[in-house]
Amino acid sequence: MEERELTALAAAFQRGDEDAFERLVEALTRPLIAMAYRYTGDWEWARDLTQETWVRVHDRIRRYDPVRSFRAWVYTVHRNACLSHLRRAWVRYETMPGDDALGRAIEPAADPLADLERREFHRRLLIAMGTLSESQRQVFARVYLEGVDQKEVAQALGIKHTTLRATLHFARKRLAAALREMEETP
Amino acid sequence: MTRNPDCEVFQDQLDALQAGALPEEGIEQLRLHAASCGDCAMLLRVHEHLAAPALGDLEAAVPDEMVASVWPRVRAEIATGESVRLRESRGWQGWSWLAPAVAAATLLLFIGSGLMYQEVRELRRRETALVQQVAEQERWLAELDLRTSTDPVARTAGLAGRPTWERALARRRSVSVAELARMLGSLPATTTIFDASDTEALYRNLPSWLAAAVENLATEVPTGDGLQAGELTRLVETLGVDSSRRISTTRLLALAGGSAPGFDLSPGAL
Q1: For a Cys-Cys bond, which of A148, B80, B174, B187 suits B229, CB 3.0-4.6 Å?
Q2: Interchain proximity B59–A31, CB inside 8 Å
Q3: Is A145 found in the same domain as A93?
Q4: In-domain check, residue A117
């Protein structure tokens, strides 16, 4: 759906049109689930977080400024929901993605051992993200988990591209150190 | 990770790789460095882990049923949220007796606090009066202590505002009869040394061996207005006490302040 159409639907929803809200959910749910999967590595969590994001959007639609991109606003709400989930997970490791039964049902692994290894690495990576500063986490998540171009991220965060690159470098160094430490002490 | 120049180049190459702008030879260099550097190898692994599948591919992999299941769940949660709020608001109606009960309890507490406050205020007033009394008594005790203290400094400090001769005496532990006579002689003859009540107490407490001599003098020395320096000089001269005899200044000061009723003027004490 085009950005203009999304914004118009959002404006209609702000005026109380619940059907417009349903159409927005239908239009953006798929990319939101995919994005949440990158943050969690778990389809169940991805769906739950997407649901949580839409409820937040419903409750906070009055805060949305129709002059700005609705898609970007929803992605921001979603990113915050995903990072909040990770923060909770960093406190209680048991909520980290583990046995993703739904995921296995969706995409049966050709090589179960490699799949298990991939899931374990993703779990460790998300734990390692807990060692990053808030700004490092924001930059790393947008560039690597969401696959957004570095210059776009710099523009969205209101920082210079060189600053973003430096932040990203430090974030990667810290991640590598944390992951290697986890490898040494399983 | 050290500040190895190769590692810095690796990071730049990783940015280019992430942007899809690294040529084949650059990728080859990247892999060569990663093979010899543990931290950079880990960074490459992170990159490769997150690069595939691409977000677009991931979107395509999301099953339609999962996408379709989100809206009913969102709608149910929003509806449930409203019903929970309504249930919560209705729930308070069953507790309608609570508000007047809390109001009554608050009123009782308020009245109780007022009465307690009055009681506390009265106790504080009494406490203040008692503290003042104690302070006054302590002040008097301190003054008495200073007058009879053997420490010249303390005594001098305690005699602030007193006559010069008293302060002069306070600086010494004892004084001879001759010195005392000289001191009295240096004062104007009309200077009052003992007031009427002090003089009366002095006469009343004199030992018998001295009383007779003083009694004779008393007829000549009127004591209605106390004893002045000139009168006291004559008294000392008339008594014929050995002029080298030393007298404790503590005793003299106590005598002058009238603070030592029943003081001992026996030769041994003097």
Answers
A1: B187
A2: yes
A3: no
A4: no
The mean pLDDT of B67-79, rounded to a whole number, is 90
Question: What average pLDDT does the segment A29-52 reach?
Answer: 89
Q: Any CB–CB contact under 8 A between B44 and chain A?
A: no
Chain A 90-149, residues with CB within 8 Å of chain B CB atoms:
106-107, 118, 121-122, 125, 143-147, 149
- Quick: pLDDT tens for A22-39: 999 999 999 999 999 888
Q: Are residues A43 and A97 in the same domain?
A: yes
List the single residue in B1, B46, B62 with the smallest CB-CB distance to A34. B62
Does A170 contact B at CB distance below 8 Å? Answer: no
Domain contains A126: no
Residue A46 maps to a domain: yes
Arithmetic mean of pLDDT over chain B: 73
Answer whether B70 sits within 8 Å of A33, measured CB to CB: yes
Flag if A173 and B42 touch (Cβ within 8 Å). Answer: no
A82 and A153 in a single domain? The answer is no
Q: Domain check: are A102 and A39 in the same one? A: yes
B81:A55 CB<8 A: yes
Domain positions in chain B are: 5-58, 173-256
The CATH number linked to A141 is 1.10.10.10
- Binned at pLDDT 50, 70 and 90, residue B265 comes out as very low
Question: Same domain, yes or no, for A98 and A26?
Answer: yes
ipTM: 0.79
Please answer whether residues B63 and A34 qualify as being in contact, where contact means their C-beta atoms are separated by less than 8 angstroms: no
Inter-chain touch B58–A37, beta carbons under 8 Å: yes
